[in-house]
Write a structure and sequence with these properties.
mainly alpha; elongated; 434 Repressor (Amino-terminal Domain); 2 domains
């Protein structure tokens, strides 16, 4: 999701118009409109100010990159359909724990 989309989402959830958000943040309504339309990207400081003015927050924290899910998906997509079906059936059997047998 892009910055302008986050601003629009926060604004609409808060029930605000672009004009009301403009008044709360001191930014021109036309600039907010261009951010929301994706014409230009808002600076991080402006993005946070707009989201905060709507009563929301975007926690920006650094977390270690975990690509294991990407690898797992890639491996599954590279497998033949019969292999994927066999794995899926095996997983279903494990979840059921042999019940019903």
């Amino acid at each position: 999701m892009r910055g302008g989309e986050l601003i629009r989402e926060a604004r609409t959830r808060a029930g605000l118009t672009q004009t009301e958000l403009s008044e709360r943040t001191g930014r021109d309504r036309s600039v907010i409109a261009r951010w929301e339309q994706g014409v230009i990207s808002p600076p991080v400081e402006s993005l946070l100010a707009c989201v905060h003015a709507c009563g929301y927050d975007i926690p920006l924290v650094l977390v270690p990159l975990d690509e294991s899910a990407d690898r797992e998906i890639r491996d599954e997509l590279m497998a033949a359909p019969s292999e994927r079906v066999a794995r899926m059936l095996e997983q279903l059997g494990q979840k059921r724990g042999g019940k019903g047998r």
